[in-house]
Amino acid sequence: DCVVPGKFMREIASLQDLGGDVAIGANGTQIIAEYAGMRFVTRSIEGNYPNWKRFFPAERTSSVAFALPAVRQAVKRAAAIATTAEPVTIEAHPGSEFATVSLVDEGGSSSSEEVPCSVSGVGTKIRLNVAYAATALDCFECDSVALETSGPTNPAVFSGGCHKHLVMPCRPTA
Model confidence over 128-146: pLDDT tens digits? Predict the structure, then answer.
């Protein structure tokens, strides 16, 4: 594991616009990228960092798989009516082929939409900050995403491709 400077990664990412493959590797304290016969070298960032993996739940009781464009658009439509940071509720039941993405704002406006999905486990009903959920879904560049949960008050994890995004839930209302 190593920490790569952001400026270096942006420069290497810009090479994709030129076409061709970029090879990236690490040897000790250096990060090396090769492209079209050129070699780029930088030092990895040193330091003691928290074990970020411990924030992600080790077990989950539910996984809901969505086509990314469908769930992303449903959350964005819900966000469009939010006047503040109201939570969006995502609810899916075992055996159902659809999940409900809904939001009720403090003024009484509401949004509810059925999104095709595949449910594994016990299903889920979780309330997430609509802006955080929308931002998390915007980070993905794959075809599908899974919402993994282990209860309404435990962290939710959106995962897809090689990316994971943790979103803390909003407290359920009484």
Answer: 999 999 999 999 989 999 9
